[in-house]
Amino acid sequence: MNQPRAVVIGAGIGGLTAAAALHLRGWAVTVLERAAALEPVGAGIALAPNAQRALDVIGVGDAVRAMSAWQGEGGLRTPSGRWLSRTTPDAAAERFGGPVVVAHRADLVGLLAALLPAGAVRTGTPAEVADPGEDGRPATVRATGGDGRSGVREYTADLVVAADGIHSAARQVLFPGHPAPRYAGFTAWRFVVPAPERPFSPHETWGPGSVWGTVPLHDGRVYAYATATVPAGERSPDGERAELLRRFGDWHHPVPDLLAAVRPDGVLRGDVYRAATAPPAYHQGRTALLGDAAHAMTPNLGQGGCQAIEDAVVLAHHAGPGAAGGAGLERRLAAYTRDRLPRTMEVVRRSGRIGRLTTWSSPPARALRTAAFTALDRLGPRLALRSLDGIADWEPPCAAYAAGPRGTRGGGGAAAP
Where is this region: Disordered (predicted)? Predict the structure, then answer.
């Protein structure tokens, strides 16, 4: 039997995880990436225990755990520096089997890309679904450029994985007219700088219609992120560093030091979108949607990348080992939809509810929010982790595809078929 072929559109975290999982299952995999190089856009990514256990399946969970840099207490603060709620990595580990690890996206991309054969990732290759396929007929992807070539090239595949992001062209091909993700009401900034000389505690700080977060990375740098309620598409004429200084420059340490350290061109900005409604399915024919292409969500639970990683492992589980070939794939992709659509849309809803809380700006609303967080902290730091109940405790449906050490809770569940 010929080795089945998968084509993945998009070399983000979800696309690369899917490619690695399918490759380890015996599929021939090609990844088509629009960008000219495999240099991830973004700065940090939160990897909760659910994502770490999914990464155990492909053998890189422990490498991610080794990137953990959060020590001591952290939590929620006001712009003046007052603590509203505190927690520790140990509290998350006790509740969910491990701490949340914040890694640089480039480090995670490097781990995932190293699992793939040479030449599997083709950059500078914009691609689109030309035919989603069906049982008895392969799917077709049309791409331009790549490997120094010009013109249009078609790829046929037993399986196409559409990991092409929030504004997915593949989603519109599969489900024409389905509502596109909606602007969530706020924009986000991100950057990475060296750690300041003065010590600080990891924190997320909520102000009027705005949020600032500071998290250490394992390499001695700091990942900073911020959100603010602004009209969609707005950009600062003076540059995004100047905009951050205007909005956050007088907030507590280490915010001013971090803003002083970042280059004017070192700040990434992007509007935040969330899925308006669930698509009819996460697949059609031989094509599956994955990550933001299926379920764009706000960043407030730190689960966007985590859910894409879960998608990838569950998709490879249902696609089956390469020896099984492509027969009956539509039935197996229907199982992928049944597993993933309800769970991911619940995460979209829960994350969106927290996102709306961050947009409160009136003094009475903020006072109510502050009182609620203060009361929560008095009841104990572990209660602050309840927002991740039913999310961070997820277990993958399959055992590891790669040999090597696993986490204490990694890869539970039945063995893959």
Answer: 126-149
Domains of the chain are 5-71+105-179+279-357 (3.50.50.60)
Extract the tokens encoding 141: 């992807």
- CA angle at residue 157 from 146 to 59, to 5 degrees? 80
Q: How far is CA 215 from CA 53, 67, 94, 176, 192, in A?
A: 22, 12, 21, 40, 10
SS3 130: strand
Element (H, E) at 47: strand 44-47
- Tens-digit pLDDT profile for residues 75-101: 899 999 999 988 888 888 888 888 899
- The structure tokens 């104990």 sit at 380
What the block records as the tokens of 95 is 């509740």
Residue 136 has, within 13 A of its CA and on its CB side, a CA count of: 0
Q: What are phi and psi of 101, to 5 degrees?
A: -105, 130
Tell how far CA 125 is from the center of its chain.
Answer: 22
